[in-house]
Write a structure and sequence with these properties.
- The chain is of the alpha+beta class and 250 residues long.
- It has one domain (25-249).
- 14% of the residues lie in helices and 30% in strands.
- It is built from three helices and 14 strands.
- The protein has helices at 8-22, 146-149, 233-249, and strands spanning 26-29, 36-39, 42-46, 60-64, 72-75, 94-95, 101-104, 107-115, 124-135, 162-163, 170-175, 187-192, 201-208, 219-223.
- The strands form two sheets. Strands 1, 5, 6, 9, 10, 11 and 13 form a seven-stranded mixed beta sheet that branches. Strands 2, 3, 4, 7, 8, 12 and 14 form a seven-stranded antiparallel beta sheet that branches.
- A hairpin with a 2-residue loop joins β2 (36-39) and β3.
- It is globular and about 45 Å long.
Length: 250
C-alpha cells in the first residue's frame, strides 16, 4: 500500500481552519419584523417605534459615531469620554433608579432602547460588544475594551454584571430598513433585574459595526419607556421560542 505523506504545513493549516471554525461568532438575528432573541438571559427584541425617537427626541445616555464603513464603540460617563463616544448632552451618567422595570413571564427586567442610524442602501449593522457595569460613582473613565478583557474584570470598572459575549463570541444582527435613519428605536433590550446589585450608577459599553460595518450617523442608547407599548409577555416568549427552534433547524 502506498503511503501518503502529509506535510506539516498542511496539517497546521487544517488545524487553524478547525480552530477558526470552532471560534466563529454566533449570530442572533433581529433583521426581520417581530424578531426576538435571548442571549445570556437578556431578551433582544426587534423594534420599530412609530413615533420619533432619534437624536434630540429620546433622552440618550450614550451616543457613538465612528468613521463611515468602520466600527464604533463607547460608553456612558460624566467623566472624560473615550473612543467614539459623542460628548455633550448625548452622553451622561445613568442612575439605576432611572431604568424602568418591566415584568415579562413573571421575571423582572430593566428595559433599554437602541436607535441605530443607517441609510437605505446600507441598513444592516452588527452589535458586537455589550457589557454592563455597576459602580458607586458616575465619573469613571479609563476603560479597557471588552475585546481585550472579555469575561474578565475591567481594571477601572470591575467585573461585568452582564456580557453579551459571556461563554463565547456573539453578535446581534440589526436592521434599520423598517424606517432607515435616526428617528425611531430599532431594538429593545431587557436585562434581568437580578444581575443588578449595589451601586447607584450603571455603565453600558457597546461596540457596533465590527462584524457588519456601519454606514451613517449616531448609534444611541436610551432607557425604555416602562413596557407600555411592548407585546404581552406570552406573545414575546413564543416569538423567542420560535427563533430558537428556527436556529436549531439550520
Amino acid at each position: 500500500m502506498r503511503k501518503v505523506r502529509v506535510s506539516r504545513l498542511f496539517l497546521i493549516s487544517v488545524i487553524a481552519l478547525m480552530v477558526a471554525s470552532a471560534q466563529a461568532a454566533v449570530e442572533y438575528n433581529l433583521a426581520y419584523n417581530g424578531a426576538v432573541e435571548t442571549v445570556n438571559g437578556a431578551i433582544y427584541m426587534q423594534w420599530d417605534e412609530p413615533k420619533p425617537m432619534g437624536t434630540g427626541v429620546i433622552d440618550a445616555f450614550v451616543a457613538m459615531q465612528g468613521t463611515t464603513g468602520g466600527s464604533q464603540h463607547g460608553y456612558n460617563t460624566d467623566g472624560a469620554v473615550e473612543f467614539d463616544t459623542v460628548s455633550g448632552g448625548h452622553t451622561h451618567a445613568l442612575l439605576l433608579s432611572d431604568i424602568p422595570i418591566v415584568t415579562l413571564g413573571g421575571t423582572n427586567y430593566r428595559e433599554f432602547l437602541l436607535d441605530i442610524n443607517q441609510n437605505p442602501t446600507h441598513n444592516i449593522l452588527s452589535l458586537d460588544e455589550l457589557t454592563f457595569y455597576q459602580a458607586a460613582t458616575g465619573t469613571l473613565t479609563g476603560y479597557l475594551p471588552d475585546f481585550v478583557t472579555r469575561n474578565s474584570t475591567n481594571p477601572a470598572f470591575g467585573a461585568p454584571i452582564y456580557d453579551l459575549d459571556a461563554g463565547g463570541d456573539n453578535y446581534v444582527k440589526l436592521d434599520d430598513s423598517f424606517g432607515a435613519g435616526s428617528g425611531k428605536g430599532d431594538m429593545l433590550l431587557f436585562v434581568p433585574n437580578s444581575v443588578f446589585g449595589a451601586g447607584n450608577y450603571i455603565y453600558l459599553y457597546s461596540m457596533c459595526g465590527d462584524t457588519i460595518n456601519g454606514a451613517d450617523g449616531f448609534e444611541e442608547w436610551a432607557v425604555g419607556n416602562g413596557g407600555t407599548v411592548i407585546p404581552e409577555p406570552a406573545t414575546m416568549l413564543l416569538l423567542g421560542l420560535g427563533a430558537v427552534l428556527l436556529r436549531k433547524k439550520k
